[in-house]
Design brief:
single chain; 10 strands; DNA-binding; four-stranded antiparallel beta sheet; alpha+beta
DNA sequence: TTCCATGTTCCGCA
DNA sequence: TTGCGGAACATGGA
C-alpha cells in the first residue's frame, strides 16, 4: 500500500500517538528489515530516547529523536504502524516494537519484509546517499524545477514518475492515478512530451497527491472520478465508462482508460 | 497450486 | 558513462 499519501497517513498516526514518551526498549523480531545497521546499534540508539516529531520524505517516514538522530522507516509493499497498550498482543508480522514508559508500544509491521528501518544521524545526508529526489509535495519543488528534473528522459512517463531520484513518493498506483487525470498514456515516452504536457503533469501530480494525502491514501475515500481502487477489468473508466486496459509498463502492472488517455505515440 | 502484489536493488544491454 | 527494463527478493492472499 504505502506510497506518499499512505505514508502521510502514517506520519499523522505517529504524531497523534507516539510523541514525547521515553523509549524504554525495543524488540527486533527479524533483522532482515534492518538497513545496513546491526541490531545492537539500532537498540542502543533508540533506548532512552523520545520521539519529538515525525517527518516524511517520499515513502520514507522519519521519527525524529531527542538525540538529534532519526528512526527511518520504509514500509516496502505492505507495511504499517500499530500503537497499542504493551499488554496487548503484538500484531502479526510486527518486525520492530518500541516500548514506551507510558505503558504503550508502537509496532512496525512489514508483512513481506520488503520494508527497511535504521537510525540515521542526518535525514538530508541519508537521502542524498540513497539518491532520493525532492519529495513530490516539497514546497520548494516548483513547476520549473519539476520540468527540469523530468526532461531528457528516454523511457516511459510512468517510469519517470516512479523514479524516486527524480521526485520521491510516487509508486505504481499513484502514477496510474496521476496519468489518468492528466490524460496521458502510461507508455507515452518522456521525449514525446512538450512543455505544456509537463506543466499539466506537474499540476495534476500536486493536486492528486495533496488530495490523497489528506485522506491518507484510503481508496474508499477517493473523490468520484478517480481511478484509484478501480484497478480491475470489472470496473469501467470512472469518467467515460469505457472498459479499462492494463499492461506491463516499467515492470509493473499499469491500468489506464484507452479513451481518456492519449495513445502512446500521439 | 499457481500467480500476483501498492517497493527497491542489481544486472545486462543499448 | 548513463539510463532503462527486467529479474530477484520474501511472504501471503486470491
Amino acid at each position: 500500500m504505502p506510497e506518499l499519501p499512505d505514508v502521510a497517513g502514517f506520519q499523522r498516526y505517529l504524531q497523534a500517538t507516539a510523541l514525547h514518551q521515553r523509549i524504554r526498549g525495543s524488540h527486533l523480531t527479524d533483522r532482515r528489515i534492518l538497513d545496513h545497521q546491526s541490531p545492537q546499534m539500532l537498540a542502543r540508539r533508540l533506548k532512552g530516547r523520545k520521539i519529538d516529531s515525525a517527518r516524511r520524505r517520499g515513502k520514507w517516514l522519519f521519527a525524529e529523536l531527542d538525540s538529534g538522530e532519526a528512526l527511518g522507516l520504509h514500509f516496502g509493499m505492505s507495511g504499517e504502524l500499530d500503537y497499542a497498550a504493551q499488554k496487548s498482543d503484538w500484531p502479526d508480522h510486527a518486525r520492530l516494537i518500541l516500548d514506551f514508559d507510558s505503558g504503550y508500544r508502537l509496532a512496525v509491521i512489514s508483512r513481506r519484509l520488503l520494508g527497511r528501518t535504521r537510525v540515521v544521524e542526518d535525514i538530508g545526508t541519508f537521502a542524498a546517499r540513497r539518491e532520493l529526489g525532492p519529495d513530490a509535495l516539497d514546497e520548494d519543488l516548483g513547476r520549473e524545477a519539476f520540468q527540469r528534473r523530468m526532461q531528457g528522459r528516454r523511457g516511459s512517463v510512468k517510469s519517470a514518475l516512479m523514479n524516486q531520484s527524480i521526485v520521491a513518493g510516487i509508486g505504481n498506483v499513484y502514477s496510474d492515478e496521476i496519468l489518468f487525470q492528466a490524460g496521458l498514456h502510461p507508455r507515452r515516452r518522456m521525449d514525446r512530451l512538450d512543455g505544456e504536457d509537463l506543466s499539466n503533469l506537474y499540476r495534476v501530480m500536486r493536486r492528486v497527491l495533496r488530495t490523497a494525502a489528506r485522506f491518507g491514501g484510503d481508496a474508499r475515500e477517493a473523490p468520484a472520478g478517480w481511478l484509484l481502487g478501480g484497478r480491475s477489468a470489472d470496473t469501467p473508466c470512472p469518467r467515460c465508462g469505457h472498459e479499462l486496459e492494463s499492461g506491463t509498463v516499467a515492470g509493473r502492472t499499469a491500468w489506464w482508460c484507452p479513451r481518456c488517455q492519449q495513445r502512446p505515440d500521439d
